[in-house]
Amino acid sequence: MNTSNHPPNPARPPTEVTSKAKRRFFTAEYKKQVLQEADACTQSGQIGALLRREGLYSSHLVEWRRLREQGALAGLAPHRRGPKTKEVNPLSKQLAEQQREIARLKAENAKLHLICDVQKKVSQLLGVTLPTIADDDESTKRSS
Questions:
Q1: 8 vs 2, 11, 12, 54, 127, CA distance in Å?
Q2: pLDDT in tens, 5-34
Q3: pTM for this predicted structure
Q4: What pLDDT digit, counting tens, does each position of 43-97 carry?
Q5: Around 48, how many Cα atoms within 13 Å sit in the side-chain half-sphere?
């Protein structure tokens, strides 16, 4: 038995799921057309009727007029949202190639030093003396 003074809750209708609203965007031509129509309005209430007919807000007109006054006809075109693309430096590709080449040459140089060290140790173990090259000494004597 229900002793409370509250009536029972009526059955709720099922919740309706609507699709996600999409952002509207207006072409520059449409913006110019609406601005021309708004500028042609002379009687009170005509701009409100125009906005209702087109489904616009007064803030649209304010923003579009501001862009038009700035002389930005391109400013009336819709702007791409999101992060701006970075300008590619034309020398960055060349720099990356040169850095890869330097890394490859350094690795090759390290391998050659390792091979020379092994050859020196093998010659010491076998008791073979390797000829020494004094290129640095000879080249300095010639240039003097």
A1: 9, 9, 12, 46, 108
A2: 666 666 666 667 667 777 788 888 888 899
A3: 0.40
A4: 889 999 999 999 999 999 998 888 888 776 555 566 677 888 888 888 888 999 9
A5: 3
| Structure tokens belonging to residue 21 | 């609203």
Say how far residue 116 (Cα) sits from the centre of its chain.
49
The Cα–Cα gap between 38 and 6 comes to 56
DSSP 8-class letter at 73: T
Residues 6+ apart with CB under 8 A from 14: none
Q: How far apart are CA 65 and CA 59, in angstroms?
A: 10
- Alpha carbons within 13 angstroms on the beta-carbon side of residue 112 total 6
Residues contacting residue 8 through CB under 8 Å, at least 6 positions apart: 2
- Taking the C-alpha atoms of residue 92 and residue 90, their distance in angstroms, rounded to an integer, is 6
Task: For residues 76 and 79, give the distance between their C-alpha atoms in angstroms, rounded to a whole number.
Answer: 9
